[in-house]
């Protein structure tokens, strides 16, 4: 979630909606106000000009009567002044005329070409020069009025105090035109705010409309924004929980039939798929971990037993070598038979005891070989079961990879939908800007979903890679175990031959002990028997050494198998740790 002074999506949409509501209204109101003001100004100018034209027209008619002798010039002038300016009152001002359409504060006045005021509503100004009169901006007002009148008529704008309130200064507009009959500059003037009362009313109405729009539009905008932002906020909060590893969240229920409803439905489906994925990975990881414990223990025991067998066989080889050396000594004793039958008998007895011991050692070695054969068969079975489990895990990983691809495809389609929405919103111009923001948020959510799917896909590829290595290692281990079984079986056969040979030696030595009294006469036969015994003993020692070497060679693959099994167990533990990060 954002922090500090940043705005969330709801506030942004609300502000955007209100801006879209108010700005066109304000612009339209201002346009109407200024257009109305302009039209009213034009209407005021027309009214001023019409009154001046009426006065000049009346002067023309009265001038004809003066020329015809029906009126004197003074009578004619008085009639014009009385009609358009007013009769003199007792307060120094002329009585205002109601029939002239010149606005609330409008009036007419007459100057000559030199700027002298001839007739004015404030008749105390009459007969006084005003050529050098200036407004607050330094503009020579009378000069401009006279010049516009002489040049065919025109409007003059300047600032002037009002007759009824000398303390108030306002903009004034005057139309002046030269009378061709008497040489008067006839002028009609009024204040612009007298003509713009209607425009001010429009401005007041605009404020009332804006206040109403602010109230009603805010309610509608809030409802609309909640309708749009609520689904997005719910999805955003749910994505935060998923990012924190919490998949145990309620389904998002959104009844909208638009893209937000589709987004919520797709998100719910994605969560369900992730739950199934995590459960499946967790179950397989536990199964692999449990399956590797027994093979690992068996491999450790087998390694220990192999070490013991190796040591025993080495001892047997050393014993056989000692026995061979002793037989050689017996051969020498036979050549020295003249030393006495007793020494031969004692030596024969000692040799008999040694052969009995060798027979026992051979029997024990044969038992160890049989145990090794059984253990190797057990290892072969465990390795085969582990290989099946690892292959099952590999198949499950491929299924997970397909699901991850579906998630990535959904994210891609959501991203395309957001892009199309942004394009359509851009075509809509100002009215589509809100949808652009929504499309951007949807696209962002789609990209985050795609990133999560890509991370899961990378994890699955790593698991598949480790699983493939485990399968190869299992296959190699199976081959090594099979080879070890063959070697141990050969060793068992060799032990049986050794045992048979030792029994033969023991039998012959018993015979030597029994006929020790006949050694002198049977020395040649004893010599031959001892030579045969020496040969068999040497062969036994050689075979024992070969078995010891083969057993030591078998020990290395067993240790490698132990390391591989331990590595597979660690991979399963890592998978369990990864799945425990998600709460389903």
How does this model look, in words?
This protein folds into 2 domains: 9-213, PAS domain (Beta-Lactamase), CATH 3.30.450; 262-407 and 460-580, Orthogonal Bundle (Helix Hairpins), CATH 1.10.287. It contains 9 helices and 5 strands; from the N terminus they run ααββαβββαααααα. The protein has helices at 9-67, 73-84, 141-150, 192-195, 197-243, 259-335, 341-427, 433-514, 519-580; strands spanning 107-111, 117-119, 154-161, 169-178, 185-191. The protein has a 5-stranded antiparallel β-sheet. The protein is rod-shaped, with a radius of gyration of 61 Å. The two termini are 23 Å apart. Residues 1-5 have low confidence and may be disordered.
Listing every helix as H and every strand as E from the N terminus to the C terminus, the arrangement reads HHEEHEEEHHHHHH
Give the number of domains.
2
> Structural class per helix/strand content?
mainly alpha
Instruction: Give the averaged pLDDT, no decimals.
Output: 75
- Put simply, the count of helices is 9
Distance N to C terminus:
23 Å
Strand content: 5-15%
Unreliable residue runs? 1-5
Question: What percent of the residues sit in helical stretches (DSSP H or I)?
Answer: over 70%
Largest sheet: 5 strands, antiparallel
| Overall geometric form | rod-shaped
Oligomeric status of the shown chains? single chain
Query: Using only CA atoms, what is the Rg?
Result: 61 Å
Q: What CATH architecture of the largest domain do you see?
A: Orthogonal Bundle
CATH class of the largest domain: Mainly Alpha
**Largest sheet strand order:** 2-1-5-4-3
CATH topology-level fold name of the largest domain: Helix Hairpins
* Number of strand segments: 5
């Amino acid at each position: 979630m954002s922090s500090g002074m940043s705005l969330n999506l709801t506030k942004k949409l609300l502000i955007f909606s209100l801006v879209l509501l108010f700005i066109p209204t304000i612009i339209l109101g201002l346009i109407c106000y200024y257009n109305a003001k302009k039209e009213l100004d034009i209407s005021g100018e027309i009214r001023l000009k019409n009154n001046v034209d009426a006065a000049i027209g009346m002067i023309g008619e009265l001038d004809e009567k003066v020329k015809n002798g029906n009126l004197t010039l003074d009578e004619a002038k008085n009639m014009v002044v009385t009609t358009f300016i007013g009769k003199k009152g007792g307060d120094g001002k002329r009585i205002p005329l109601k029939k002239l359409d010149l606005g609330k504060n409008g009036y007419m006045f007459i100057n000559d070409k030199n700027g002298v005021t001839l007739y004015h509503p404030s008749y105390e100004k009459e007969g006084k020069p005003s050529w050098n009169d200036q407004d607050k901006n330094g503009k020579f007002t009378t000069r401009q009025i006279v010049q516009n009148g002489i040049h065919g008529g025109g409007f003059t704008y300047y600032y002037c105090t009002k007759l009824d309130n000398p303390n108030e200064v306002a903009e004034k507009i005057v139309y002046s035109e030269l009378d061709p009959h008497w040489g008067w500059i006839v002028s009609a003037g009024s204040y612009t705010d007298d003509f713009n009362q209607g425009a001010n009313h429009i401005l007041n109405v605009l404020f009332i409309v804006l206040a109403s729009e602010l109230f009603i539009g805010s309610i509608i905008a809030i409802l609309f924004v909640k309708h749009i932002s609520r689904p997005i906020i719910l999805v955003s909060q749910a994505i935060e929980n998923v990012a924190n590893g919490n998949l145990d969240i309620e389904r998002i229920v959104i009844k909208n039939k638009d893209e937000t409803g589709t987004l919520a439905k797709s998100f719910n489906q994605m969560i369900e798929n992730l739950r199934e994925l995590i459960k499946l990975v967790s179950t397989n990881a536990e199964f692999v971990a449990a399956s590797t414990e027994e093979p690992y223990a068996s491999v450790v025991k087998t390694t220990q037993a192999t070490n013991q067998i190796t040591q025993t066989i080495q001892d047997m080889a050393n014993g056989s070598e000692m026995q061979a050396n002793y037989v050689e000594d017996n051969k020498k004793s036979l050549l020295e038979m003249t030393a006495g039958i007793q020494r031969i008998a004692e030596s024969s007895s000692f040799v008999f005891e040694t052969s009995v011991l060798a027979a026992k050692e051979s029997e024990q070695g044969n038992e160890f070989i049989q145990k090794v054969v059984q253990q190797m068969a057990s290892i072969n079975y465990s390795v085969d079961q582990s290989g099946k489990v690892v292959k099952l895990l590999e198949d499950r990983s491929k299924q997970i990879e397909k699901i991850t691809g579906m998630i990535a495809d959904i994210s891609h389609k959501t991203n395309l939908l957001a892009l199309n929405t942004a394009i359509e919103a851009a075509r809509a111009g100002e009215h589509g800007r809100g949808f652009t923001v929504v499309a951007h948020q949807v696209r962002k959510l789609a990209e985050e979903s795609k990133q999560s799917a890509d991370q899961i896909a990378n994890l699955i590829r790593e698991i598949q890679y480790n699983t493939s290595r485990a399968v190869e290692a299992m296959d190699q281990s199976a081959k090594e175990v099979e080879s070890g079984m063959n070697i141990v079986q050969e060793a068992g056969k060799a032990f049986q031959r050794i045992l048979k040979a030792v029994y033969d030696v023991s039998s012959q030595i018993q015979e030597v002990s029994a006929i020790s009294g006949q050694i002198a006469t049977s020395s040649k036969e004893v010599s031959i028997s001892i030579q045969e015994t020496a040969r068999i003993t040497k062969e036994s020692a050689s075979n024992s050494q070969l078995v010891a070497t083969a057993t030591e060679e078998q020990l290395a693959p067993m240790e490698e198998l132990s390391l591989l099994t331990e590595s597979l167990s660690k991979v399963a533990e890592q998978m369990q740790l990864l799945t425990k990060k998600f709460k389903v």
